Amino acid sequence: MPDKKLLILNSQQIQQKIDRIAYQLLEDNFDEEEIIIAGILPRGNLVAQRLKSILDDIAPFKSRLLNIEIDKQSSTLKSSISTDLQECANKVIIIVDDVLNSGKTLAYGMGVFLNIPLKKIRSVVLIDRNHKSFPVTTDFSGIALSTVIKDHVDVVLNKTNEDDAVYLI
After folding, report:
1. How far apart are CA 115 and CA 108, in angstroms?
2. What is the domain partition of the chain in residue ranges?
């Protein structure tokens, strides 16, 4: 990777974006009893954990966290989730990832839930790059970046929230 890194978001700004998204999720789901927050591995689950932590403090509803693992190299949907899929039936699903680029990962994440009845499905990304090859839009995003396709967005998230950053490389 090139040595030039442009800081897009620092740790405090990332936390502000995640806080704002959590309040938007609260407003969108205020009358629900329970929502499922599904983080796409490897970094979408870190964003999902932070959203769940905030919602646990501010929301009247219960939130459950699950992880989605997707084979991003496959041309067909190959995935696994960390719970029985039927436990998600008739619930609100919030799919969370760190960066939306082509939309393939988010589309595959939604595909996991296509064979069960849902109340609604929403998508959350920290960074929306606007290079979609798939007809996917985000319902909630931290920031939209207009980048060129050769740019790379590096999201650094730590369990302690210290030294978190988003770089454009």
Report:
1. 13
2. 6-168
Residue 95 pLDDT greater than 80, yes or no: yes
Question: Rounded mean pLDDT of the chain?
Answer: 92
Say how many residues make up the chain. Answer: 169
Question: So what's the architecture of 6-168 in CATH?
Answer: 3-Layer(aba) Sandwich (3.40)
**What's residue 140's pLDDT?**
98
The string of DSSP codes covering the chain is --S--EEEE-HHHHHHHHHHHHHHHHHHTTT-SEEEEEEETTTHHHHHHHHHHHHHHH-SSEEEEEEEEE-TT-SS--EEESS-GGGGTTSEEEEEEEEESSSHHHHHHHHTTTTS--SEEEEEEEEE----SSS---SEEEEE----TT--EEEE--TT-TT-EEEE-
